Amino acid sequence: MRRKWSLSHFSVLLQSLLIMTSFIDWSNTVTANLNACLLVERGTQNLFYSFERSAAAVELAVQYANDVILYRVGISLNTTYTDIGSTCEARNHLVAHAMGLRDRGTICDVYIGPGCGSAAESLYDYTRSIGAFIIGSPAAGVGISAPREKYNYMGRISITHQNNANIILQFLHQQNYSASTIICDLYNSFYKQLSTLLENQMRTTDQKYYSISKFVQVDSSQITTRAIETILKTNSARSRVFILCIPSAAVRSFMLVASDLGFTAGEHVYLGVNLFPSTTWGNFSYSTGDDRDDAS
Ligand SMILES: *[C@@H]1O[C@H](CO)[C@@H](O)[C@H](O)[C@H]1NC(C)=O
Ligand SMILES: *[C@@H]1O[C@H](CO)[C@@H](O)[C@H](O)[C@H]1NC(C)=O
Ligand SMILES: *[C@@H]1O[C@H](CO)[C@@H](O)[C@H](O)[C@H]1NC(C)=O
User: Fold this and answer.
1) Ligand with the closest atom to the CA of 278
2) 39 close to 82: Cβ distance less than 8 angstroms
3) If you measure from the C-alpha of residue 184 to the centroid of ligand 1, how many angstroms do you get, rounded to a whole number?
4) How does pLDDT run across 230-270, given as a tens digit for each residue?
5) Could you point out which of 17, 40, 247, 250 has its C-alpha 20 to 30 Å from the C-alpha of 220?
6) Is 176 in the pocket of ligand 2 (CB under 6 A)?
7) How far is CA 278 from CA 44, 89, 258, in A?
8) Are residues 142 and 259 in the same domain?
9) 158, 185, 204 — which closes off a domain?
10) pLDDT tens-digit profile of 159-213?
């Protein structure tokens, strides 16, 4: 049976509301404007980070922060977006973007972004000098120019390459693998940053393991079957563990060549890195609808 709302229910509700609202100082007015400067990439096929995908969430979050939280303490949060392009190059224009904002009279109390580690590291050179904080989103590759610990005026969210590198290294150690060959796609910013940090991490934490492992650089979009064959053959004399820091389509090509060479009979280990399906990494799947689906 459904219970009807009685007058006493309403009275309780009203009392609760009155108690709650008595804690809110309705006389608060805005006493401070906080400006968050968003410096975020506009991604492409090869660059995963994209403001387009996060703009709506950012807008909702800022509105929520202003309407529900910050007004109580008299703060108004404002954001300014700057498009910082769509590459992850070590040589970038982050300082110019930050200076441009300053020249136009925009004071940035905090910087949010960028996605690329190298861009965040460049931005840091400027923001540290003015004492401003960077909320890296995710600035996953930070730690390339200097150890991560040197960037103490920067916080990061979510996944980082440092964590991914640690997971890979832990896996290798737990399995007691004695040497690895790491295939790195230097033309894909995600894998380039991941393999750079993996190499740094291995060199600094385990010099011995690093000295017997090998990092092989490839351009997976151009690589031929013959080249893959050479890489697998020459390296398998020394190491049976291959870490494939390359997009999914290239992982499939590597595995097919490995199968043709008889390298998939249980003597070798292949580790592909793909966090979830995306246009940057592709889709981990044996099936592409070509005549090699069965072999895959
Ligand atoms: C918010 O930022 C924009 C762009 O910089 C600026 O035009 C606007 O005046 C700012 N609003 C407040 C309340 O500071
Ligand atoms: C790795 O080596 C240690 C020490 O010899 C051993 O206890 C462990 O079981 C080995 N792990 C695997 C996965 O073989
Ligand atoms: C990945 O593959 C699945 C199944 O083939 C498909 O439904 C999905 O759209 C693909 N995702 C991407 C990002 O390509």
Assistant:
1) 3
2) yes
3) 43
4) 999 999 998 999 999 999 999 999 999 999 999 999 999 99
5) 40
6) yes
7) 11, 21, 25
8) no
9) 158
10) 688 888 999 999 999 999 989 999 999 888 889 888 988 999 999 999 999 999 9
